[in-house]
Amino acid sequence: MQSVILKGLILILLNVNYFISVFLKSNLITITSEISLKNNFMTKTNSYISLKKVFCLIIYILLFATGTNAQKNAHNMENKLSALIDSFYVNDTLPGVVAGVWTPDFTYKYAVGKADLVTGAERLFDDKIRIGSITKTFVATVILQLVDEGKLNLDDRLDKYYPSYPNSSNITLRQMLDMSSGMPDYIENPRVLKSFIFDRNDKYTPQELFDITASMQPSFEPGKGWQYSNGNYNILGMLIEKITGNPLHIEIDNRIIKPLGLNNTVFPLTSQMDGQYSHGYMKDTLTREFIDVTVMDPSIGWAAGNMISNFDDLKIYAKALAEGTLISRSSQEQRLMFLDIGASKSVKYGLGILSMEGFIGHNGGITGYNTTMCYNPELKALIIISVNEYGLEGGASDKIFAALAKAVYPERNFFGN
Fold it and tell me: Is the pTM of this model over 0.70?
């Protein structure tokens, strides 16, 4: 907005200069006496300079006022967003929250709370975090790249690759990507759920998770409904390895992490986090005390939710994901064919990507960490929220995201504002 006002004021100044020049010329032409011409020229010139100074002063004052108002508005918005985040931090009793908002006219970064409740270390903007199901967007991107390379087709039936999976002849890769396959969620298996929440050092192979998923009842016939399921993405990760002949983490690293320069993003192979990171917590449902659940074997989430990143990298990745810079235009068009998910009119799901009121990206909830990362291509606005708590009661990042989106764009009526 400020740049638009500046351009307008410059145009005004140019027009003023032009009309003053015309005024001088028209008056000078009528003067016939040489002495009179000289005197009048000096008078007109001095008048021109004085007028120009006046207009420059006016424009300077207007620009100063515009800049001051813009700074005041930005400051007011920062205070508003910080107050919103603080209210969630206090009312939801969260260990810590980090938030970032980037628009063409406004940048906001804020952190509150603790990254480590034992040492008292504060949450920082560049802390590494587990990003949970945002991992699915990486896996889906690699699948779409393989489609672009002619190695896969979105309408391929699963039985082409895994004929042992029940009803695989009626399940397509597209349905697995957009969660309309009816495939059950292996996290709901009692043994895996216990590992996911409590016994976090338990180890699984992708084939074990495949077998567990295959043993469960499907949620519905393929293409006849929608249900979020980690089972889809475990098998898609296996498919990437089958087609490429390489481990999944190598393909993600070579195809996405390295090309985008995501220096703090990894598909981990061990349960520990390294470097500067935030601890993750969940609440004991009885005592309400925080339990440190930072350490977790990566095999439990694997292709469905294993990755680690930080805000600097997510800022780069979110824009690339929403704009489709890593895949062909046709694949991006397919990716953004969103389905209604039934639970909320505000949220739709595409091929490993979701849309929340036009903000495109994904959220991630894994034991100890909850993240929401979405970019709005129309507004060129990005919002990322990280909460270092997630457990049996879910997480808070989505509702903080919605509150910030409504606050930044009150006129858009986001989320039923």
Answer: yes
